[in-house]
Sequence to fold (481 residues):
Amino acid sequence: PPADHAAWVARLDGMYAFALWDAAAGRLILARDPMGIKPLVLANVDGGLLFASEMKGLRAHEGHVPMLDEGALALRLAWEYPLDLSTLLLGTRQVRPGTVEVWSLDDDGRAVMDSRADIERQRLAPATTWDPNLGAADLLESFIQSVEQRLMADVPVGIVLSGGLDSALVAAVAHEAAERAGQPVPEVWTVAGSEDNPDWKAAEAVSSALELTHHQHLLEAEDFEHHLPNLVWHGEDLDTSVMFFQPLFQTMASSVKVGLCGQGADELHAGYPRYRDPHAHASLVRQRLEAMDHPTAAASLNGTLQGEAWLASSHVPEARLATLDDMLGFELEHGQLSNFQLRLVDRHSMAHGLEVRVPFLGAPHRDAAHRLPMDWRLPSSGEEKAALRRAADLTRLPKDIVRRPKLPAGTATAPNLLRATLETHHDAAASVVERYPRIASGLANQPDVMLGLALFEAIHLVDGGRQAPTGSVADLLEMVA
Fold:
């Protein structure tokens, strides 16, 4: 029974996605880690089941013809990430994070899913009170355990150091953990568009205070042009604002094969600015949905989304984002973390043979974070991630780093280079709006996504995702003009 499989898989603490063939029972077992750090996609084709870690892997079967799922795209434009199990390809979905699926063949030899069971669901259980004089040390200890587990490796380990609190805390805890274990202290890597970038300066302050070996890479305009096609090829989505991931991980991979990053902290500890006003964010999503003349957008508004890719019938923004508690739970379970943040890091690091681990999402720390009161994640007045900052106060991090406010990754990393890239290719990419009149408003208002969709069409639809792109951005846009 799937519950039996879920029981033994639940004993794993880490990141994984796997397929296990039970030859004796004639069953295929598919499982994915509770947070969705590792990808697993599948499609039914000609009565068979195809599965892979990337959508383009499904192209190995001649019967799999990639076509855009316009409904999934409409919701991606409204929410800014693919919802639930959806992908941008029609008939292709993901295995839900924290889930075991059991498949077999029916009497006609067709692949059928017999059953599905949960390994773990992310349910917030906030306490009514939290004493920072006792709780901060416990919260830090939970993170120390997660970092220590993820430092175990038989190859050198590096750290992504953005300059923000989350990556700085990873670096500080890893530094002390490595020294206690008699291991080499991990080196750190930073990229930015200029030496005047506040993240660049903050990362320098962290590395200096902790006496870390610091590798710094300044992005150039040609970096963006060179890496953008590969960003869409490996990412299999519409992201263009995070072009720094490709040069960052390529640089790291030349020295280390395992990395640690600070992903997941903002979702657990309410670090994003939108969390301050859930109603305003719900209103923004509603406005985007109402502006699109698409049945899937309408279904999201009236609570009637249906189909294998949707986990719940109601994705009405006001219902899902009514309170901070609702918003955090929704984003943990319905795609913001797994389909956006974690996907970006995993796809673009693995593209260069770099295994990036996510200590904030280790079981010890995420369990501790789920129990934090909401007013210790985001106080009504004051700084976000309040409890995490109190824990960080107990480390060697400089106090100005611990108190540093959140800056958005991507747009803040190299804003001028990103703006120039979008301006250069805006007119060539704009033709994509005409091909999707029912969602034109969503595309026109998000020029970075518009460019991403045009490149996605060229790479994953016109060329079918058969091989990595060799042409320039201009060449690829010409293919779909």
Remarks:
- The longest helix spans residues 132-151.
- DSSP finds 21 helices and twelve strands in the chain.
- The CA atoms of residues 124 and 384 lie 18 Å apart.
- The chain has two domains: 2-118, 124-481.
